[in-house]
Amino acid sequence: MKHLLATTSALAVLLGIAAAPAFAGEQTAWRLFVSDYGAPIVHALDMETGKKIETFNVKAPTSLYRSDSGRTVFAVQGKGDTISVLSSGISFGDHGDHGDIKVEAPRLLDVSFEGKKPSHFVDHDGDIALFFDGEGKTRVSREADILEGKPAIREVATAAPHHGVAVALGEQVLVSEPNFDKPDELPVGIRVVDRAGATVGDVHACPDLHGEASSGNLVAIACAEGLLVTSGDGKIELLPYDRALPEGKSTTLVGGRGLQYFLGNYGPSAVVLIDPKSEDAFRLIDLPTRRVHFTVDPVRAKFAYVFTEDGQLHRIDVVAGKIDASLKLTDPYSMDGHWSDPRPRIAVAGSRIVVSDPLKSVLHVVDAESFKQGDDIALEGKPFNLVAVGGSGETH
């Protein structure tokens, strides 16, 4: 019997089978990707240690966007006529009652999307839509194919170059309709295009179109008179601004996570909470000074954050519809000057809120639970755009 047990144990080792049960451990990993305002580089930081993992060289200073899955980060280089793609190195597997996490080194993929003046990036269920203003064209591809280095590209053209946007919804693509009389001005509507390139139905009017976001199964697009809203079922309806709101409009939207809502700007010194399914769809929140940047908390669903030009970070309770805490972080960043001047940006990395301070070459870190400032992270140059990727999962 002892000989049999020994033989069985040895066979298990040869076959790579654990002789004893293998227990899963839990791992938390968060990474922050940071672009520089003036240099064509992207830093990858480990937020658990605050240390830099790698710096990637790109073609031009870049705006960063993460995919919904967090597996990829897109570096949109408007002045470089290209979009580079990074693998974040963090991925998750869904096993029903739990999720596995896989952590690898981040890397710059050997994949890029070339075209004149790329602008908007939109991910919807793994369909990536990239709009090129200088061509008036959209390139659509699947994130899974991009990660494999073999992106199959579907191109959707509009009638003229313009500052536009597109959203891929399965077989159809929602794409902005240019202003034919004044091509340099904002689009005037949304056109639906099928896989064959044919227009489906009429153009949906949306004067001064600018701003798009998803929350749950809803997609919203900001217009001068309200929001076009769709759940991808073929119906696109206008949600007009409430008459009780002051004169204004939203031009930037972000979608809630965990709670279904949208957060938009509304004039220079306010934001608006938008719940398309509520009778009281719009709730205006006045800010103490002009708004610089805002985002939602993907982990703590009831919170969103706004940074204002007086150097304060404000926490918004989206259920109560008000600012419930404020924290002074930086010197003032006036909104006077060019719209693209280097100013702070916000990202949420698990239990940390990170605010870039490009003129001081530092990232300010705030504990999301206590809303108190922690240790800063020094970063050379002018750290600007931020995206955070990560979470917790089991390892085996």
Automatic annotation (TrEMBL):
InterPro entries hit by this protein: AztD-like (IPR047697), Quino_amine_DH_bsu (IPR011044)
Cytoplasm is among the record's keywords: no
Keyword flag Nuclease: no
Domain of life: Bacteria
Signal peptide: 1-24
This protein's UniProt keywords: Signal
Transmembrane region(s): none
NCBIfam families found in the cross-reference section: AztD
Record-given protein name: Metallochaperone AztD
